[in-house]
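Narrative of activities, Objective 1.

The group set out to show that a structural description can be obtained from nothing but a protein's sequence at a throughput compatible with the screening campaign. Below is one input-output pair from the validation batch, recorded exactly as produced.
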Amino acid sequence: MQEKVENLLKEAVDKIETAQNLKEINDLKVLYLGKKGPVSELTTHLKELSNEEKKEFGKILNDLKTELSTKFEEKIAYYTNLELQKKLASEQIDVTLPGMKIPTGVPNILEKVIEEVESVFMSMGYDVVDGPEIEEDRYNFELLNIPKGHPARDAQDTFYLSGEEILLRSQTSPVQIRTMMEGGGNTPVRMICPGKTYRRDADDATHSHQFMQIEGLLVDKNISLSDLKGTFDVIAKKLFGSDCETRFRPSYYQFTEPSVETDISCFACKGSGCSICKNTGWITVSGAGMVHPNVLKNCGYDPNVWSGFAFGFGAERLAMLKYGISDIRTFYQMDLREISTFDRKDVE
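Output recorded for this entry:
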């Protein structure tokens, strides 16, 4: 029996040494150490032996299994490492090859414009304030001197969500109202509130049911229209160049008195007249005015002591003028052929 074990060991070792790959060595392991292999078959002879012989032969079988397992594991490890080295060699990267050009995006053009405006106003001590897009009627209209039934409500054509009390804000002015009310009627306010607004407009090249507004408010003592003019001059020159001129024209808004339209000199034709300015030499960019006394009262401020000005820009309007974009829908569509036009140094 001892001789049979020795012959089996020699035979298995010879085959292990001549195995050519990982598959062959794994097959040999199953062949010799499997449940139906010759090593397992030897254990069937244990029942033919006495107790003393069983102990001795059992030790011989355990030594055989241990030695064969060690031989198999060594060979498996060798071929596993060999295959790994071959795979690494085949997947080696040539670092001297030129790199692939990876397309990169650019900052969102509306966010870029808003950030520019925010930067200018923050340098003048203004706070950037946010507010809810789902708003109450009283903040969006009533406290802004636009009571129920007022024709100005029709012009804004509002998205109502719950009766006529809850709505999608049609302007960011409610943020101004909330900020003034938090001031308690005795605190100066200096803030801008950029954000989304919603109106029932038919989408076309110059209108959208959703658009970005940048509204601002300053409330303090002894504020006049000249303060508004000076502030508007600073913004216009920062956005459109130091040679940009500004002017005010009389207008009407429910929440300001007096109200003005704010114009800038045409940056394309320098005032001589072109298609952008409709041959007038001027471009209207925002509405503004002195805060109406009723609005001050509604928010707890005494109009005999406090005064202020308010203004509002359309972010899309500013971006269209500054970057020569002719269709407002470009900002909200995912046509890469149009978006790629934003990939310019002046918007990076």
